[in-house]
Amino acid sequence: MNNERYWGWVPTSIALTGVILFIFATFGPPASSSGFVTTLKGVLQPLSPEYVAGKEHYAMMPGPGSWLMTFVLGMAIGGFIGGRTMKKKIHDVPEIWVKNFGGSRKKRYITTFIGGILILFGARLAGGCTLGLFISGSTQLALSGLYFGIVIFAVAMITARIVYKKYGKGVL
After folding, report:
1. Cα–Cα distance, 124 to 26 (Å, whole number)
2. 157 CB-side CA count, 13 A
3. 95-112 pLDDT, tens per residue?
4. Tally of CA atoms within 13 A in the half-sphere of 150 that contains its CB
5. What's the rounded Cα separation, in Å, for the pair 130 and 152?
6. Which residues of 101-129 are buried (b: 16+ CB within 10 A; e: fewer)?
7. Residue 7: CA atoms inside 13 Å, Cβ hemisphere, count?
8. Any idea where the domains of the chain sit in the sequence?
9. What is the C-alpha separation between 47 and 133, in angstroms, rounded?
10. Residue 39 — left, alpha, or beta (φ > 0 → left; ψ -120 to 50 → alpha)?
11. What whole-number distance in Å separates Cα of residue 15 and Cα of residue 10?
C-alpha cells in the first residue's frame, strides 16, 4: 500500500479559508455551488424566456457571470491545482475501487455519474445546495451548517464501510 500522503489538514484548511475569504470579500454572498443553474438560466433565457420566467428557481438565481459561476469555476481550478501539487499520484480509478469492483474506467465513471445524480436529487429535495449549507453555514457557525456537516460525514463513513467492506480494514 502506498503511504504517500494527501495534502495535510493544516494547509488544506488554510487554502479553504483563503478561498472562502476571497469569495466573501470580492462577491459578498456566502459560498454555494449552484453556478450550474445560473449558467443554465443564461443558456435557456434567450431560447425560452417564458419558460425561465415561469420557474421560481430561476427567478431566485442570478444570471451567468455571478459569484456562483465563479465559485464553480474556482472549484474546478482548485481541484486541478490541488491534484497536481500533491505528492500522491492520482488515479482515474482508485486502487481500492479496483480491488472491489475491477479496473474498468467506464464502470467507475457510470457509477460516479449516478452518484452525482442522486446527490443533486437529494439537494433539490432539500430545497437547496448542500455544499452551501455545509461550507457557508459552518463558516458562519450556523447550527444547521454544523449539524449538516456532522450528518454528511457520518453518512459518508457508513457508506464507505458498506461499499468497501471487503477491503475496508485499515484502509478507511
Report:
1. 27
2. 7
3. 778 888 888 889 988 988
4. 6
5. 9
6. eeeeeeebeeeeeeeeeeeeeebeeeeeb
7. 16
8. 1-90, 92-172
9. 32
10. alpha
11. 9
What would the grid cell of residue 151 be?
Answer: 450528518
Task: Look up residue 150 and give its three cell numbers.
Answer: 456532522
Q: What is the pLDDT of residues 2-47, one digit of tens each?
A: 555 667 778 888 887 887 777 777 766 554 555 566 777 777 888 8
Question: What residues contact 31, with CB distance under 8 A and at least 6 apart?
Answer: 19, 20, 23, 24, 71, 131, 132, 135, 136, 139
The secondary structure element, H or E, covering residue 66 is none
**pLDDT tens column, 42-91:** 778 888 888 888 887 777 776 666 666 666 677 788 888 877 787 777 66
Per-residue H/E/C for 121-153:
HHHHHHCCCHHHHHHHHHHCCCHHHHHHHHHHH
